[in-house]
Amino acid sequence: VKSWADAFGGELYSIVTKYSGSLLLQKKYKDVEPTLKIKEVDGLELVKKFSEQMESMLRRKVEAVERLVEAAEDADLNHEYNSSLEFDYYNSVLINEKDENDNYVELGDEFILEPNEHFNNLLVNTTYSDIQLPTNVYNKDPDILNGVYMSEALNPIFVDNFERDPTLTWQYFGSSTGFFRLYPGIKWLPDENGVISFDCRNRGWYIQAATSPKDIVIIVDVSGSMKGLRMTIAKHTIVTILDTLGENDFVNIIAYNDYVHFIEPCFKGILVQADRDNREHFKQLVDELQAKGVGTVNKALTESFKILREVREDAGQGGLCNQAIMLITDGAVEDYEAVFEKYNWPDRKVRVFTYLIGREVTFAPNVKWIACNNKGYYTQISTLADVQENVMEYLHVLSRPMVINHDHDIIWTEAYMDSALFASQAQSLLLMTTVAMPVFSKKNETRSHGILLGVVGSDVPLRELLKLAPRYKLGVHGYAFLNTNNGYILSHPDLRPLYKEGKKLKPKPNYNSVDLSEVEWEDQDEILRTAMINGETGYLSMDVKVPVDKGRRVLFLTNDYFFTDISGTPFSLGVVLSRGHGEYILLGNTSVEEGLHDLLQPDLSLANEWIYCITDIDPDHRKLSQLEAVIRFLTGEEADLECDEELVQEVLFDAVVTAPMEAYWTTLALNMSTETEADVEMAFLGTRAGLMRSVLYVGSEKISNR
Q: Per the record's keyword annotation, is Metal-binding included, yes or no (predicted)?
């Protein structure tokens, strides 16, 4: 058996070396060795450089948003509210719609839409924005008309921003009255029931920008009187409040009747981060609540104040900002003044919001008194339809101090798929982060009320960010990844956010809250994770196992991790280099004339997904392949092409060194008799600069693997 194996192996080896020409290739590289420079890669240097480039790219996005905020605030300052304003605007659902007489419908004038590659080939209008409204908002409400009229001032800014920074994608303004102004304008399609459920005020970016981080305890009355519809409304109210919370908020839920119980006993006496998993967990438990017994609110209030006080005084816990109690009940009778006196007066550090459930008004004065004496807000919710609007009110109260001080905090969201924003069109699923900023009323007469006009935002595709850390600088197994200060991944080669359901790809429910420790699982002591969450700069090495070939094989590697923060954002960048693969970089020097001659050979191609030249910004360049772009850059035909000179230099070097292969392969192909020893069909080579060459040894009709 051994001699068979040796014979078989020897035979295979000689065929492969002969037809691939690998020995010639080695010799050619050996010949040029004296002229080469070999440079060690400094990982920390690299990660800092990438981080600075990312920071400047993200800063441009922030500047675009700041210009919009300024324009919106000025427009509001100069706008007199007019309750009988008549104004026709482009409604994104009605545009281009005609009635039976072939006239455009009201609010639906002609709106020119053209496909645009920069926006995934969607039909858009890059000169105007248009307005989207959820179904439950009346499109000619005076508040809406005034807001839309006032925000027309943003159109020129949208266009100007896009001209200054062509990498910008969607820019938008979400108003506190419920309309959403989107640039570039698109046609919005209702869902199959004809409903438009998208309400910008429920989106994470809106809520995060409109309020600061908060610690919230929700207290719900589950006494016997809450049975039936009241309980249903109360549950819906809790779920709606939970939906307004995010990664930076902390929460717990207490249900009370004769005694107080935390609906999740494991969370007794603490607050938990309101991330997706915890919110979903709470929603399931809320759904199981049942009404019975007699309600005593005091114990529940006492318990809540204690938790909040503990979190406040025990430094470094909770949201470190706002604290509130949400009281959901159908009436309060007993004497609760003592509780507030003991725990919340005179500082009133905790706001108390009260939601009176049902149509009864007997207890309204008591419930209102609780809110008004604790810097809160009182609403009565008598039907399920009222829930959304009434819950949203608390955000305005919490954002008041920010408005009065004019703190324009810039917020960045965790990664999400833009398909949510455009559920109306099937989008290629891209991971995005949104940069957003609140817009306040600057009018002197209402300044002390703290009126929030809305939120301005823009999307940043994470793919654009990672283009700044190109693969060729990181070696074969190297990669770059980004995470947030909550430990969640923004982008990582092992993050697989989609799963297949039948033929369709769908996002996994928790795709945007996958923790770094779930993909870099070798980091058992969380050294890497902790350092990156704290935004430190540093270095760490680990032994890792890397799956290749879609998980069919595993490699054992030693990886060096280099990380730093991206200043001005809550993000950190990590760069991974594998020992033996990414430690050194080879620099060849070849003249353009020599290299160009060899680049023009027919069987040569470049990795099209790599960026040798930036072709996706200028519309005239979009039709070029990377190889065509490189050639035009080198011949000077397109003076305004921006290319990565280092990478182009490497390509030229590789083109010259590998050129003799073509002649070698051609000679072999000519001398091949029809009944050669084996069916060798094709030979190909790839270099680290993404250059590929290939040769066919048989007629293309004979290839077994298409």
A: yes
